[in-house]
Amino acid sequence: MTVALSIVVDGIAYGMILFMISIGLSVTMGLMRIVNLAHGGFALLGGACAHVLTNSYGIPFIPALLVSVMAVVVLALPLERLVYRHIYRFSELEQVLATIGIVFIMIASVNLFLGSTLLPIRMPPVVSSPVDLGFKVLPLHRIIVILAGLAVVTALYLLVERTRFGIYLRASVDNQATAASLGIDTPKVYLAAFALGAALAAFGGILGAELLPIEAYYPLRYMVLFLIVVAVGGMGSIIGSFVAALSLGILDTAGRYLLPDIGTIFFFLAITAVLALRPNGLLVKSS
Amino acid sequence: MSANSTIAAARPQIRGAATFLPPIILLAGAFVAFWLFPYDLGFMTRILIMMVFVLSFDLILGYAGIATLGHAAMYGCGAYAAGLFAIHVSADPLLGLAIGAAAGALIALVSGLLLMRAHGLSLLMLSIAVTMVLQETASKARGITGGADGLTGISMGPVLGIFEFDFIGKTAFWYAFCVLFVILLVLRVVVASPFGLALRGIKDSPSRMRAIGTPLYRRKVAAYVLGGAIAGIAGALTAQITSLVSIEAFNFALSAEVMVMLVLGGAGRLYGALIGTLVFMTVHHIAAGIDPFNWLFVIGFMVLAVVFFLPEGLISLPKRLMRLD
Amino acid sequence: ETIKVGVIATFSGPNAIWGKQFQEAIQVYVAQHGKEVAGNTVEFVYKDVGGPNPDASKAAAQELLIREGVKYLAGFDFTPNALAVAPLITQAKVPAVIFNSATSAINKQSEFFVRTSFTLWQVTVPAAHWAASNGAKKIVTAVSDYNPGVDAENAFVSAFEEKGGTVVEKIRMPLQTTDFAPFLQRIKSSGADTVFAFLPAGPATFAFTKAYNENGLKQAGINFIGTGETDESTLDALGDQAIGLTTAQHYSAVHDSELNKAFRAKHAEMFPKSTLNPASVGAYDGVHLIYKLIEAAGTDGSEAIEAAKGLSWESPRGPVSIDPASRHVIQNVYIRRVERDGSRLVNREFDVIESVPDLGFSR
Amino acid sequence: MADALLELDSVVAGYGATHVLRNLSLKVFKGERLAVVGRNGVGKTTTLATVMGLTRQHSGAIRLNGQSIDRLPPHMRSQLGIGLVPQTRDIFPSLTVEENLLAGVRNGASIEEAYELFPRLKERRHNGGSKLSGGEQQMLAIARTLMGKPHIILLDEPLEGLAPVICEGLMEVFHALSTQGKTVVLVEQHTRLALDFADRVLILEQGAIVLDASAAELKANRDLLDRHVGVAVK
Amino acid sequence: MTTGLQVRNVSKNFGGLRVARDITLDLPAGARTALIGPNGAGKTTFANLIIGALEPTSGSIYLDGHDISKLPEATRVGAGIAKTFQITNLFRSLSVRDNVRLPILERERRTASFLRRYDGDSAVEEEVEKTLAEFQLLPLADHLVRNLAYGQQRLVELALTLSLKPRILILDEPAAGVPSSDSHLIIDAIKRLPADLSVLIIEHDMELVFEVANRIIVLVNGTILVEGTPQEISQDPKVRELYLGAGHG
Ligand SMILES: Nc1ncnc2c1ncn2[C@@H]1O[C@H](COP(=O)(O)OP(=O)(O)OP(=O)(O)O)[C@@H](O)[C@H]1O
Ligand SMILES: Nc1ncnc2c1ncn2[C@@H]1O[C@H](COP(=O)(O)OP(=O)(O)OP(=O)(O)O)[C@@H](O)[C@H]1O
Ligand SMILES: [Mg+2]
Ligand SMILES: [Mg+2]
C-alpha cells in the first residue's frame, strides 16, 4: 500500500518534471510541426544563463529564472526571423538536419564559454529541504514543480483550444498559404508560437535542472526523453502531453520500485506497447 | 508547355556511361586514397564501413521513406553476432559477415513486424525503444557480451584463407572496400527494380499504393529486412576489424549520425549516402583534430549550410553549379 | 632523437573533461621537468576519440603507431578504448600507459599495458574495510547497473562481509536513471546504517547526492560512503549538500605534501580556471613513468616494460610503485570527507590505508 | 471607363524559377462579374494565386485601387479586401468546421451567415475539417472566404463537386454578391456556366490573355470560343 | 454462379452519424451505373466501403459470390476492384510515366521482384506508352506529377486507375476539374472500357452521367432513394427537388 502510494506520489512528481522539460517541444513540434531537435538547446541556454546569474552574480533564483527565460525569448526572436522561418518549409528530414545543426552550435557555444562540466543553478536552500507529507518525504522543489506544471498546462490548454490565437496557429500550421490568404498574419503567429515554445523550454529546463542537471550536452543527452513524452502524448495535444508525462513518470517510477533490475528494459517495453496500441498518442484512438 | 521543360523530371535513366562511371570513380577513388594516405587506413576503413551502414539506411529512409532513429539496432546485432561467432565458432571473416547479415535481418524482421505498422513520430520512438532494449540487454548479459567493457577476444582468420589482417590495416581496408562495392552494386540493382520503384511509390503515397493493390506492409517489412541485413554486415565488419564490440554499437547517437550523414549527402540517392558519409566523417576528423573542443561549431555550420543552400544534399552540388552559369 | 608519445583520450563531447585533465597534467609535468629525457626530446601527440568508441580508438592507435611512429601510447579514459588497442600494442611491442580506465582485467589483455591510475577493487575494498571498522554494521549498496558499478558492488560486498558486516540489500540502478527518489526510499526503509554508492561522475552523481539530502537520508542517520562520487571536477556543482560525504580514493587535490603543493601551484598558474582530480594525477604520474622508461630503455618497448616492473617513486598522491605481477600501481588509499575550504569544496583526507595493490587482478 | 479596381500590369510569375504567367495584363472593375476560362494548365489558378501573393512574382505590377500591392504579403492583401477560394479547397484538417469558419472571420462577420448559406455546414459544425465530403469541403471553403467580407472575390472553380441544385443556389449567391457591389472573378471550366454568369470573359492560353470579350459577344459568336477553348471539342 | 459485385444490407456509422444505411445493390458485369446524390449523401463513403478503405459497420459485400467484406484493400484491388480518388491521390514526386507504370507492374505482380529493371519489360513499356497516349499525356510523361496543373493530375489519376485493368471500376468524380472541352477524353476512355467491365461512376456532372450510364442510383442521406434509367431519373420529381434542381430537364 505504501509502495503504491509512493509510486503514485514520486511518479507524479517525476512526471511533472518530464512535462515541464518537454512542454516546449509539444508546442514547437506538436503544434507547429517542426521537428525541433533544438528544443533541448533552448533549455540549455536558459539553464546556462540561470547558472551564470545565480552562480557568478549571486542573483536570487526567482529573478534569475525570469531574466533567463526573457533572455532566451530575446534570442529566439531573431533566430526565428533569420533561420527558423525558412526551416518551416523544409521537409521533415531537412528539419532534422537543420535543427541538429543549430543544436550543435548551441552546445559548442556553451562549451566554449562555460566548459562541458555541470552547470548547477543555485537555489535557496529551503527549496531543496524535505517536506514531510506524513506518509512520505518530498523535496519542496518538487511540490513547486507540480504547481508550476498545473498552471502551465491550464494556461496553454486555454490558449490553444479556446482562443482565436489557437485557431490561427493551428490553421497556419495546416496550410500556411491558405491561412495567409484568409488574412491571418502567419509570420507573426509563427513568431509568437515559436517564442512561446522557446520560453517554455527555458522555463522547464531551469525548473527541471534539479533532476536533469544542465551541462553543455544536455540537449543531446535527453533528446530521447523529450521526444518520448511528445510521441506518447500525441502530436499537437497539450493535454495529451500532460497525461503522457504523468503516465510515463508513474510507469518509470513503478519500474524502479518494483523491477529495479530491469527498469530500463521495462520502461522501453512499456513504451513500445503503448505506441503499438496507440500509435497516435495516448488520448487518440488508432483509426 | 515549354515553360515546363525546366521542371521536367530530373531522373534520367541510368544507362550507358552513367551505369559504369560511378563505380569506376569509386574504385579509382579507393586506389588514390590508398596511395595518398597510407597512414590513414584505419580511419578510411571506418569511413568505408560507415558507408555500408549509411547505404543500408538509404534504402529504408531514402527510398522507402521509412524514417527510424534506431538503425543501430541492426548494426549492433550484426556486430555482436559476428563477434560471438568468431570467438566461439569460426574465425572465417566471410562466414562472419553472413552471420552478421543474418542477425541484422532477423532483428529487422522481428522488430519490423511491429515497426512497419507505425509511422511518424511513433515509428521513430518505437525504433529507438527497440535499440534501447537491445543495448540494455547487451549491457546486462555481461557473461556473454562483456557488458560495458565490450566483447573481447575476437581474432579473425585470413580473408578467403589468403589475406591476413595486418597491423597497418591494408587487408582491412580492401576487405571493407570490396564489401562496400558489392553492396553498392546489389543496391543499384534493387533500386532500379520494380521493387525499388514500389518503394518509392510507398514513400510518396502509401494510400495510393494500397489502392493499386500493393501489400504495403509486406513490402515495407521486406525493405526493412534487406536494410537490416546490410546494416548487420556493416556491424560485422566493425567487429571483425576492431576485434572488439562495445555496447556503444547500439547508441542512439549512432542512429542519429547515420541519418545526418544520409540527409547531408542526399537521401534517396545511393551516391548521396556515400558522399554524405565521406564529407561528414572527414570534416569531423579534421576539425576534431585541429580543435577537439570546438569542432562542433564546424559541423553545426556545415550541416546548416547544406540544408539551406543544397536542400537535396551534397550530391546536388554539381547540378547546382552547372545551373549557375 | 625525438620520441613521440601518443595520447588517446576524449577531448570532445560530453566526456571531454578526461582529455582536458590529461592534457593539463601532461603540460604541467613537462613545464616542471622539461622535455629532454636522457638526450631525447619527448613530444606528445593527442588523438581525440570523442568518448567510449573502440573503433576510433583502434584507428587512432594505428595512425599514431604507423604515421607518427610513436614509441609509447598513453591516455585511455574508457575501458573499451583501452581494450581495443591491446592486440596492436602487443604486436607492435609498444607500452601503453593507462591514465584512467579502472577495470582490472585490462592489464591481462596485453603484457604492454601499465597503469598509473587505480582500479575499482583497489579503492572499494579499503572503503569497505574502513566502514566496517568505523561503526557500519548494516549496509546497503546502490550502484549503477554497468560493469564498473557491478565491480564496485562485488568488491564492497565481499570485503564488508569478510569483516563481519551485513549487507541488507544490493540495489542496482539503471544507468539512464536521473530520478533516484524510489531508490532512496528503498535505502531508507532497508534498515541499513550506511549506504555505499557507485555512480558515473556527472549528472547521475549530481542527482543522486541531491536526492540523498532531499529525501532526508542524512537526517535519518544513514551514512554515505563512496569512491569517485565527489570528484573535484563536479564537486563545486554538487554544492553544499555534498558536505560531509565520505569517500575512499587514491588522490585528493588537497593532499598534503610538498610535491602535491608544487603540482597544484604550477597547475593553478598554468590553468587558473581548472582543478586537479584523480585523472590529473594519473596522467602526471603516467608521464613521470614514461620519462623513467625512456631513461631506462629508450625506445625499446619490451625492455621498457621490464623496467617498469617494480619501479617506485614519490608521487603527488604519496609513495607509489608498479606491481611487477599486474603492472598496476600500488598506492595509498585515503578516506576523505567533503569540507568547505574558503570558497571551494574539497575532499579532506582524514585516514589512510597504505600500499594497496590491485585487489581485483587475481579475481 | 472608370479606373480599374484591380489591375495586373505585364505580370510575370510562376513557381520557383519557372514562369507560368508571361506578361499577363488585366483589369477588373468594381462590381464586375468577370469569368476566366481556358484549358487545363494554362495558368488560371496561377493568376488568382498571384493576385493573392502566393506565387513568385518576377516582374510586372499588381495594383488595387491604384495602389501597388505586389510587395505585400498575402495576409495584408486579404485585409485589403481580396478573398480567394482555392481550387483545392484547402480545408484546415485539424480544425472543426466551426473553427475553419472562425479562422476566416474578420470585420465582425458572423458565422451564422455562413450557416444560413449552407445549412449542411451547421449540421456538421463540430466535424473535423478532414472528415467532410468533397462537396461539403467546397461549401466550407466558400463560406470561410466570405467570412472575411472581401470586396473582391476570386473563385477558383467553386462549383466543382457540388450537386446541381447547390450549384444553382451558389450562382445565385454570387450574383447577389455582385449586386451588393462586390467584384467577382470566377475561374470556371464549364464555359456555359461562365458565360451565363459573367459580364466579361477572359480567355487564357499559356499564361497570357488571348481574348477579352463581353459574354454577350461570345455567346453570339460561338466559334470564337471554340477556336480558343474548345480546340479539342469534336 | 453470380458474377460481379453484390452489396447486401451494408451500413456504416461514424460515431452517431449514419452515413450508409442498409444499402443493397448489384453491380453485374458490364453494368454502367451512376451513383448520384446531394453532397454528403455518402457516395464516397460507399465507394470506400466497396474498395475496403473503410470497414462496414454491418452487412456484407460479395465479389463473384465470395464474401470480401473482411479482406484488406490491397487484396480487393488484386481481385479486380479499383477506384479513383475524388481528391487526386498520386505519386507526386514520381514522373507521370512512373505513375502509370507502377500500377501495371503491380497488376502483373512484379513489384516484389528485385532482379530485373523496372523498365525492362517491353510488354509493360508498350502498355505504358499506349496508356499515356490515350490520355494525351505523352508530352508530360517525364514531368513530375507535382508540377502538373490540377486538371492534368485528374487525367493521370484516371490513367493510373485504368492501368490496373479492374473488373469493377469505381470512378469518384472523374471529371471534376477537367474542363468541359477535355471531358470527352474521360468520356471516351470510359466508353472504350471493355464491355464486361462493371463501372460505378460517382459524378455531379449530369451531362457526363447521362452520356455514359445506363442505370442511375440516387443516394440520399445514406439510403437509396430511387434507382432507374437516366430517362426515369431525370423525370423523377423527388430527385429534381433534392438534387437536380431546375436547370435539368
Ligand atoms: N506548384 C507548382 N509548381 C510548379 N509548377 C506548377 C505548380 N502548379 C502549377 N504548375 C504549372 O503551372 C502551369 C499552370 O498551372 P495552373 O494550376 O495555374 O493551371 P490552371 O489553368 O489552373 O489549370 P487547371 O484547369 O487544370 O486547374 C501548369 O503547366 C502547371 O504544370
Ligand atoms: N471519417 C469520417 N468521420 C466522420 N464523418 C465522416 C467521415 N467521413 C465522412 N463523413 C461524413 O459522412 C458524410 C458522407 O460523406 P461522403 O464523403 O461519403 O459524401 P459524398 O456523398 O461523397 O459527398 P460529395 O458529393 O460532397 O463528395 C458527410 O457528411 C461527411 O461529413
Ligand atoms: Mg486551376
Ligand atoms: Mg464524395
UniProtKB/TrEMBL annotation, chain A:
Protein name, entry field: Branched-chain amino acid ABC transporter permease
Provenance organism: Tianweitania sediminis
Membrane topology: Multi-pass membrane protein
Main location: membrane
GO biological process annotation, one example: amino acid transport
Gene Ontology molecular-function annotations: transmembrane transporter activity
Subcellular location per the Swiss-Prot or TrEMBL entry: Cell membrane
Keyword entries, A-Z: Amino-acid transport, Cell membrane, Membrane, Transmembrane, Transmembrane helix, Transport
Transmembrane segments: 6-27, 34-53, 59-84, 96-119, 139-160, 190-212, 224-251, 257-277
Family membership: Belongs to the binding-protein-dependent transport system permease family. LivHM subfamily.
Highest taxon, organism lineage: Bacteria
Cellular compartments per GO CC: plasma membrane
Automatic annotation (TrEMBL), chain B:
Statement: the UniProt record of this protein carries the keyword Cell membrane: yes
Any coiled-coil regions, as ranges: none
Keywords on record: Cell membrane, Membrane, Transmembrane, Transmembrane helix
Listed transmembrane segments: 20-37, 95-114, 173-200, 221-239, 296-317
GO cellular component entries: plasma membrane
Major localization listed first in the record, in broad terms: membrane
Subcellular location: Cell membrane
Matching InterPro entries: ABC_transp_permease, LivM-like
Membrane topology: Multi-pass membrane protein
Recorded GO MF terms: branched-chain amino acid transmembrane transporter activity
Name of the molecule in the record: Branched-chain amino acid ABC transporter permease
Organism: Tianweitania sediminis
Automatic annotation (TrEMBL), chain D:
A Pfam short name: ABC_tran
Keywords: Amino-acid transport, ATP-binding, Nucleotide-binding, Transport
InterPro entries: AAA+_ATPase, ABC_transporter-like_ATP-bd, ABC_transporter-like_CS, BCAA_Transport_ATP-bd_LivF, P-loop_NTPase
Domain of life: Bacteria
Domain ABC transporter residue range list: 6-231
One term of GO molecular function: ATP hydrolysis activity
Family matches, as Gene3D superfamilies: P-loop containing nucleotide triphosphate hydrolases
Family: Belongs to the ABC transporter superfamily.
Annotated protein name in UniProt: ABC transporter ATP-binding protein
Native organism: Tianweitania sediminis
Lineage of the organism: Bacteria, Pseudomonadati, Pseudomonadota, Alphaproteobacteria, Hyphomicrobiales
UniProtKB/TrEMBL annotation, chain E:
Matching PROSITE patterns: ABC_TRANSPORTER_1 (PS00211), ABC_TRANSPORTER_2 (PS50893)
Family: Belongs to the ABC transporter superfamily.
CDD domains cross-referenced by the UniProt entry: ABC_Mj1267_LivG_branched
Cited InterPro entries: AAA+_ATPase, ABC_AA/LPS_Transport, ABC_transporter-like_ATP-bd, ABC_transporter-like_CS, BCA_ABC_TP_C, P-loop_NTPase
Protein name: ABC transporter ATP-binding protein
Stored SUPFAM superfamilies: P-loop containing nucleoside triphosphate hydrolases
Gene Ontology cellular component terms for the protein in this record: plasma membrane
Alphabetized UniProt keyword annotations: ATP-binding, Nucleotide-binding, Transport
Coiled coil: none
Lineage: Bacteria, Pseudomonadati, Pseudomonadota, Alphaproteobacteria, Hyphomicrobiales
Organism: Tianweitania sediminis
Domain ABC transporter: residue ranges: 5-246
GO MF term set: ATP binding; ATP hydrolysis activity
